[in-house]
Each structure stands twice: as structure tokens, then as C-alpha cells.
Backbone:
């Protein structure tokens, strides 16, 4: 850009030097007048002096004096002609060399402007009067002269026309300086491009004009937008990573607490039994022994539940969680779970009500995984519903799908937490002083198991009024598989699963 300005300035200086040569009209007229005055002075003065000296003093005849005067005049004319010739020749030679240099410079700069990848334009009276080949290409014209037929307003976006006017006025008022600007130009085919323009005031054919160098920055703008978007995405990703790191830190604090609490209880009972064996004065009745055994069993179940959840969530993340699909009556499966949990709910002062629109609905599912999903939701409802509350389990039939609803009249979920309860390691109450235990991976595992069945899970909740989970499962039948009832040992297995899943349903303090 600076080189092009320097070249243009050199051309202007060269033209200025030519205009200042002594052969311009005023200088030539002055030279002629001075020459005439000197000649007149020389003729009048020298003739009188010469005649006086030759004729009156030296007494030379007049005819000789006339010859001398003619010789003097001839000598003066010859000398004057020689001097004038040398002066004119020198200046003509200088003019010739300057014109040659000017022509060479103009050809060189014209070639340079033609080869420039950026568009070079001249604007006069709100019209383009010159552009190079790059300018024609920029505006999508076949030839550079085609641009002259289009007013500037047709080639610049309307909302930029006023800006251009203001900039032209600014150029005239700021000693020809033009700030670097970015505009949007309209090409001949109607497409809009982003350009960068650098301009300056310029005299073209004696009239004020605007010389501009225009560079297409459309691709640069695209890259800038991509980089800006990538930066925003990376910033968002960084924020998510920081949040996830914070959540993981809370999770490890909670999981440590989860492991430590049952282990402390088991260790305390073991230590008590050990002391009773070593000290004969400490008597443990069979009833107390049963209580201690039950307490250890429950806390072993708690540890087992926690370990199972950690293993299964890890398998789900790595897509190694195996599914054992068979055609089961989903209604009977969920009813058995609900009725089995009803006794546990009753011991907590809660009512559990099961209802269904159909009595039989066979579909392909993994019975073990469905039991874990329902038990986890029921466990949450029991933990977070106060005495006197009610838990509802309903099944709705939609022919090609079923919806299982688990609803309670518990404490509900805050609005700022409801969108995150299925996220990994998230707990509504993540403090170590919460009323109920929980690792923050139960609902995340439930979501993974439901999605493994091709289903969806959602939740609605109102604080202090209750929460309702909806599980929508597609009804599919495995071809070639018979419709199976639950295994003979399913009751015993279910009781054990209930003991494991509901093992942390009690207050810590």
C-alpha cells in the first residue's frame, strides 16, 4: 500500500518539475524582455561610445567606423545566438530526458497497478473513472471499463452509501487522509462481499478525486467468524469442563462418605462382638445379636449397591453393559416390584398405590434392568417423602408403547436442579450433612438403562408438592422367543434386590 502511494507521489513530483522549468510562458517572456533591454542598451550606448572614440579622438574615417559597427553588431548577434542556442538546447535536452523518465515511470507504474492483486480505483464526482483488472475481477465485470457505467450507489450496499459520503467529505477536510475502513460491496452478479479500503485525495486531470485500494477480505471474515465461533465453543467447553471437574470433586467427596459410613458401622459392630468374646462380662443376647447381624447385613447391601452402580455406570459409559432381552409381561414385572416395596413404604409411614390400564402386556425387555430402574425410582420416592405421604405407580398403554409413572407427594426438586438430575454425579442436596445417603449416579444409571431399551425418561416436579417420573418404553416382541413368565426363584431374587436397592433408606442422624 505504501509503495503504491510512493510511486504515485513520484509521478506527481515529476510532472511538477516539468511545469517549473524556465521555458514556461512567464519565464520565457521575462527572458525576452531582459534580452531586448540589454540589446537596446548595448546598441545605443556602444555605438555612441565607439563613434566618439574612433571618429573624434582617433580621427578614423567614417566608412571604417561603419564597417566596425557592422562587425560589432554581427559579433553580438552571433554570440547571442550561440548563448541562446546553448540555453535552449540544454533545457530542451532536460525536458526530453524528463519526459522519457516520466514515460518510463508511468509505464512501470501502470504495469505495477495492472499486476496488483488488489483493486485500484479512482472516484470523481461519485463515479468510478478508473479501475485496474483486479478491480474488474473484484466487481465481477469482464472488462474494467464496464464498471464506469455503474454509479457508486449501485455497487455499494445502501446502508454504506452515507458512510462513503461522509468519508469522502472527511478526506477533503482532513488533508486528503482516509482511514482504513471495511465495507460491503455488491458485485455485478448481485453477491455481497466484504472489502477493506484505503483511500487518499488525488488530483486527476486537474480535478479533485479519490484514489482507493480495495482488498477482498470475504475469506478472512469467514475465517475470523469461524475462529470466533470456535473460541466461543472452546470457552463454553472450558466452562463445562470446569463445572464437571467441580462436580467430580463433589462426587469423590460424597463417594468417600458413602463408603466410609457403612464401613464405620460394620467396623463398630465387629469391634463390639470382638470385645464380647474377649470380655466374659459383656453379654450379648440372641435378640441383640440378630440386630447387630441385620445392621451389618444392611450396610453390606449398601456397599454392594454402591459398587454395583459404579461398575454398571462404567460399563454403560464404555458401551459394555450387556442386556438380556426376553419377552416378559411388563405389567406383572412392575406390579411384583411395587407390591414388594409396599411393605417397606408402609414401615416408613407411606402408602404405595399401583394401578394399570391393562392387565397384560408382553414386550422384549431385560427384567433385571427394569427391576433396578423401578426400584431406584421407588427408593428415591421413599427417601424424599415424609410420613403420611403417598407413592403412585401407574402404567399407561399406547399400543406401540407404554408409559410407567412413578409419582410421590415428597419434597420435590428445585427448578434450578430439575434439568440436571439425570447428569452424572449430580445430587439435589450434595452436602455431607444431607438427611439421606446417595452417590449421585443412581438417576444417571436409570437414564442409561431406559435408553438401552430404546426408551425415554422425563420428570416434572414442584417443590413441597412432589415429583413424577415418566418412563416411555417401545413395545417390541423378539421373534422366535416364547412369552415368558418370571422365573420360579424371582420372588427370592427380588427380595434380595429390594434389600440392596433400599439399603440406604434411613436417616443418618
Residues:
Amino acid at each position: 500500500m505504501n509503495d503504491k502511494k510512493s510511486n504515485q507521489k513520484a509521478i506527481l513530483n515529476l510532472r511538477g518539475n516539468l511545469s517549473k522549468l524556465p521555458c514556461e510562458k512567464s519565464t520565457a517572456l521575462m527572458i525576452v524582455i531582459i534580452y531586448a533591454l540589454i540589446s537596446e542598451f548595448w546598441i545605443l550606448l556602444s555605438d555612441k561610445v565607439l563613434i566618439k572614440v574612433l571618429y573624434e579622438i582617433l580621427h578614423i574615417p567614417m566608412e571604417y567606423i561603419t564597417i566596425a559597427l557592422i562587425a560589432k553588431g554581427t559579433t553580438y548577434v552571433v554570440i547571442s545566438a550561440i548563448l541562446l542556442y546553448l540555453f535552449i538546447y540544454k533545457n530542451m535536452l532536460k525536458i526530453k530526458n524528463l519526459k522519457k523518465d516520466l514515460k518510463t515511470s508511468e509505464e512501470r507504474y501502470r504495469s505495477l497497478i495492472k499486476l496488483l492483486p488488489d483493486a485500484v480505483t479512482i472516484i470523481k464526482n461519485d463515479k468510478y473513472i478508473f479501475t485496474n483488472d483486479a478491480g474488474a475481477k473484484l466487481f465481477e465485470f469482464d472488462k474494467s471499463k464496464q464498471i464506469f457505467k455503474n454509479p457508486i450507489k449501485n455497487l455499494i450496499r445502501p446502508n454504506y452509501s452515507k458512510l462513503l459520503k461522509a468519508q469522502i467529505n472527511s478526506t477533503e477536510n482532513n488533508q486528503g487522509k482516509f482511514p482504513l475502513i471495511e465495507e460491503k460491496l455488491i458485485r455485478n452478479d448481485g453477491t455481497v462481499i466484504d472489502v477493506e479500503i484505503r483511500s487518499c485525495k488525488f488530483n486527476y486531470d486537474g480535478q479533485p478525486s479519490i484514489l482507493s485500494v480495495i482488498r477482498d477480505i470475504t475469506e478472512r471474515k469467514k475465517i475470523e467468524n469461524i475462529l470466533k465461533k470456535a473460541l466461543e465453543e472452546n470457552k463454553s467447553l472450558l466452562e463445562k469442563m470446569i463445572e464437571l471437574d467441580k462436580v467430580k470433586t463433589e462426587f469423590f467427596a460424597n463417594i468417600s462418605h458413602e463408603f466410609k459410613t457403612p464401613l464405620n458401622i460394620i467396623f463398630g459392630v465387629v469391634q463390639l462382638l470382638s470385645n464380647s468374646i474377649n470380655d466374659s462380662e459383656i453379654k450379648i443376647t440372641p435378640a441383640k445379636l440378630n440386630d447387630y447381624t441385620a445392621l451389618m447385613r444392611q450396610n453390606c447391601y449398601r456397599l454392594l449397591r454402591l459398587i454395583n452402580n459404579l461398575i454398571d455406570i462404567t460399563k454403560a459409559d464404555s458401551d459394555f453393559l450387556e442386556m438380556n432381552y426376553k419377552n416378559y409381561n411388563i405389567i406383572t414385572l412392575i406390579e411384583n416390584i411395587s407390591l414388594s416395596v409396599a411393605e417397606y413404604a408402609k414401615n416408613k409411614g407411606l402408602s404405595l398405590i399401583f394401578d394399570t390400564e391393562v392387565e397384560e402386556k408382553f414386550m422384549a425387555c431385560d427384567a433385571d434392568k427394569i427391576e433396578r430402574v423401578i426400584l431406584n425410582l421407588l427408593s428415591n420416592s421413599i427417601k424424599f417423602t415424609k410420613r403420611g405421604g403417598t407413592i403412585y405407580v401407574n402404567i399407561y398403554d399406547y399400543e406401540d408403547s407404554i408409559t410407567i409413572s412413578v409419582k410421590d407427594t415428597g419434597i420435590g426438586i428445585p427448578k434450578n436442579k430439575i434439568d440436571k438430575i439425570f447428569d452424572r454425579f449430580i445430587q439435589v442436596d450434595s452436602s455431607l450433612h444431607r438427611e439421606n445417603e446417595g452417590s449421585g449416579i443412581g438417576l444417571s444409571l436409570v437414564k442409561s438403562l431406559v435408553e438401552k431399551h430404546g426408551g425415554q425418561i422425563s420428570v416434572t416436579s414442584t417443590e413441597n408438592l412432589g415429583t413424577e417420573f415418566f418412563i416411555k418404553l417401545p413395545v417390541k416382541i423378539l421373534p422366535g422367543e416364547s412369552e415368558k413368565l418370571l422365573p420360579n426363584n424371582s420372588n427370592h431374587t427380588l427380595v434380595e434386590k429390594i434389600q440392596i436397592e433400599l439399603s440406604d433408606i434411613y436417616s443418618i442422624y
The chain has three domains: 2-115, 119-216, 224-509. The radius of gyration is 52 Å. The CA atoms of residues 136 and 142 lie 7 Å apart. The longest strand covers residues 192-204.
